[in-house]
């Protein structure tokens, strides 16, 4: 599938038309019912504002949390409607239901440039089942469907894929941007291409390794997944996390990178801790001899230098997965060093993965990255070369 061949809002006449827009408003809500981080809503404003300027009648929809197919007001989109009203400078009415009388009534009264929101699509269990009848009901509210929810594009749900069967279906600017930046980075990367993988599990990142192995110049492995590789090399890894059933796979990957002449880097030194907790006793050790009873929790200072050096002069960097337990200050130094080196490299830098994105934000490097994907799971699937149902369902140019 050619992702870049999908129609966008710019390829379709929306003047005076009712447009159903699937956004990713799945924002964290604090104990007082306030939105703790508005990033996902802010990222969707470009498309909404474009639709307003072009006189569409706009019906927004999204999921929020996991209401498990029931109408549970703890998961209402009311805080989102309030924030949108304030940000757009016009009232965004919230329907009391998803596809019921309230949604129908409000949507039938829209004037060009008006914006409304229907309730959490996951109030219906048919949403996640991609139920055709429910998709039809959603579609019946509008004349055009726009998908701009990159974060759920890897799921075939009624509001992300099913509804596209019944309406002209195009993507919004956020999805377009995600596809263009990440698509270019893997199809025609500015060389050299460096891929940094971390996070807790090898199993999460196998697909990405195999999909990019023919394109990558340097592959850097850090984080919890590195210990499975070290174990495969016969190192002592103490109590570090390791996927026993992936050791052979790690060996296979190391054979492949050699065959393909990919520069392959794993940590040479490790910050280990006695226990998996923030204030545990810690020390730096050689990566091939982690003492019995100690657990690898971050890359050591020499590894930080080697990784940073490898990032210098790169053309494109794709980073998915923190190289240590960055949530705890004592074990965040490795991830900080990598973030700094990525920022200073001058390369096109793409951060995929929810935890990597929050690490980069928390450490203060967000505005120095070319692109921080809004979809953790979706960006992983994209980098694996998998088909994203929410994109596949859209009309081709
Ligand atoms: P992303 O969401 O960016 O793809 P992952 O979800 O794969 O990243 O992994 C992130 C998690 O990996 C973080 O919570 C981090 O604490 C954990 N992690 C990183 N290094 C280690 C390690 N050495 N041991 C245990 N967990 C680790
Ligand atoms: Mg994660």
- Summed up, the helix count is 13
Query: Strand share of the residues?
Result: 15-25%
CATH architecture of the largest domain: 3-Layer(aba) Sandwich
Poorly predicted ranges: none
| List of distinct ligands in this structure | adenosine-5'-diphosphate, magnesium ion
Give the CA-CA distance, first to last residue: 12 Å
Cα gyration radius (Å) = 23 Å
The level-1 CATH class of the largest domain:
Alpha Beta
SS content category: alpha/beta
Largest sheet: 6 strands, parallel
In CATH, what is the homologous superfamily of the largest domain?
Phosphoglycerate kinase, N-terminal domain
Strand order of the largest sheet: 3-4-2-1-5-6
Specify the oligomeric state: single chain
Number of domains: 2
Inertia-based shape: elongated
Average pLDDT across residues?
A: 96
What this model shows, in words?
The relative contact order is 0.13. The two termini are 12 Å apart. The protein has 2 domains: 3-177, Rossmann fold, CATH 3.40.50; 189-384, Phosphoglycerate kinase, N-terminal domain (Rossmann fold, 3-Layer(aba) Sandwich), CATH 3.40.50. Helix content is 34%, strand content 17%. The strands form 4 sheets. Strands 3-4-2-1-5-6 form a 6-stranded parallel sheet, sandwiched between helices. The chain is elongated. The chain has 13 helices and 17 strands. With 397 residues, it is α/β, with parallel strands linked by helices. Bound molecules: adenosine-5'-diphosphate (ADP) and magnesium ion. The site of magnesium ion has 4 residues, from helix 11. The site of adenosine-5'-diphosphate has 20 residues, from strand 14 and helix 11.
């Amino acid at each position: 599938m050619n992702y870049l061949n999908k129609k966008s809002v710019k390829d379709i006449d929306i003047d005076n038309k009712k447009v159903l827009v699937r956004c990713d408003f799945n924002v964290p809500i604090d104990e007082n019912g306030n939105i703790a981080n508005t990033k996902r809503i802010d990222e969707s404003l470009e498309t909404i504002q474009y639709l307003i300027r072009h006189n569409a009648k706009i019906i927004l929809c999204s999921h929020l949390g996991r209401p498990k197919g029931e109408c549970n007001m703890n998961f209402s989109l009311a805080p989102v409607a309030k924030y949108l009203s304030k940000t757009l400078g016009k009232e965004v009415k919230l329907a009391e239901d998803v596809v019921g009388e309230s949604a129908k009534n409000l949507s039938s009264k829209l004037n060009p440039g008006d914006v409304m929101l229907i309730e959490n699509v996951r109030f219906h269990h048919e949403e996640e089942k991609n139920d055709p009848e429910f998709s039809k009901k959603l579609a019946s509210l509008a004349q055009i469907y726009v998908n701009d929810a990159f974060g759920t594009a890897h799921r075939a749900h009624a509001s992300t894929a099913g509804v596209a069967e019944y309406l002209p279906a195009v993507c919004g600017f956020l999805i377009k941007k995600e596809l263009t930046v990440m698509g270019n980075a893997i199809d025609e990367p500015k060389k050299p291409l460096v891929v940094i993988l971390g996070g807790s599990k090898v199993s999460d990142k196998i697909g990405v390794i195999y999909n990019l192995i023919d394109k990558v110049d340097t592959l850097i492995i850090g984080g919890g997944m590195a210990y499975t590789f070290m174990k495969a090399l016969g190192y002592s890894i103490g109590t570090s996390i390791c996927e026993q059933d992936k050791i052979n796979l790690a060996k296979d990957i190391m054979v492949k990178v050699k065959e393909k002449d990919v520069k392959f880097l794993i940590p040479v030194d490790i910050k280990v801790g006695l226990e998996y907790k923030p204030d545990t006793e810690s020390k730096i050790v050689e990566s091939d001899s982690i003492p019995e009873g100690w657990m690898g929790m971050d890359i050591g200072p020499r590894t930080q230098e080697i990784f940073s050096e490898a990032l210098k002069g790169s053309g494109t960097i794709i980073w998915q997965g923190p190289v240590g337990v960055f949530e705890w200050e004592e074990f965040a130094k490795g991830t900080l060093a990598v973030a700094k080196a990525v920022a200073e490299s001058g390369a096109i830098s793409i951060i995929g993965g929810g935890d990597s994105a929050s690490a980069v934000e928390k450490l203060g490097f967000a505005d120095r990255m070319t692109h921080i994907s809004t979809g953790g799971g979706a960006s992983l699937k994209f980098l694996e070369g998998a088909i994203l149902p929410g994109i596949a369902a859209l009309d081709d140019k």
